[in-house]
Amino acid sequence: MSGAFVTVEGIDGAGKSTQIACIAEWLGARGAEVVQTREPGGTALGDAVRELVLKGDAPFSGRAELLLIFAARAQHLHEVIEPALAAGKWVVCDRFIDSTYAYQGGGRGIAEAEIAVLEKWAQRGRMPDLTFLLDVPVETGRARTQARDFPYAKTRTARAPAPTVVMAGGGVAAVAEHLPPPHLDRFDHETAQFQEAARRVFIARAEQNAGRMHVVDATRDAEEIRADIEKLLEKFWKTRAA
Question: What's the pLDDT band for 153 if we cut at 50, 70, 90?
Answer without folding.
Answer: very low
